[in-house]
Model the fold of this input.
Amino acid sequence: MTLPFEITPVEAIGYLGAVFVVATYAMRTMIPLRSVGLASNAILLGYAVASHAIPDITLNAILLPLNTIRLVQMIRLTRKVEEATHGDLSMDWLKPFMHRRTSKAGEVLFRKGDPAEEMFYTVAGHFRLVESGIELPTGEVVGELGLLAPEQRRTQSLECVKDGEMLVISYSSVRQLYYQNPRFGFFFLQLATKRLFQNHARLEAQLAELGEPSRQPAGSGSD
Done:
């Protein structure tokens, strides 16, 4: 049995490239998507060169290095997230995704009840959470709970006490990092849980100073 048409080696390369392009639509996570996209660019570039298709050569010659760069970035991000989820919650790896913001003494960066759209990392200066009176040293994350709060509203006000500088990342960027690498979700939950435990410890310390230990129903145990 003979086929009604013949496929040349060059055409076979083109069809293979098309298969890889279609396969990119089946990828659910970014690293496999970038990997398959990179393979399709390489195959289609070879097909374009063999076919002397200048527009396709130009397109894939541009996409090939772009996909390579993005793939390398995603692999590095994955490694950093994995390190963060097993480490000390250092924010160093997240800094390239943040932008700098300066503030003056007396400036209120956000107020309790405001819509929450970003979180901060203190770099220099002096900041305070107004309602709780908590002083924030440098190297402290603040504003991350707003992403998890009901209706994404601020639970406290943040005031700049002394001229300072912060790194800022929007919640949309946080979500993008999560979508690109679900492991980031574990990092963020660890970060938020750490804050909740710190707040709980401060509350217990304040109650102890006031001589008002937390009350528990008779016969109940503690978690």
Q: What stands out?
A: The radius of gyration is 26 Å. The chain has five helices and six strands.
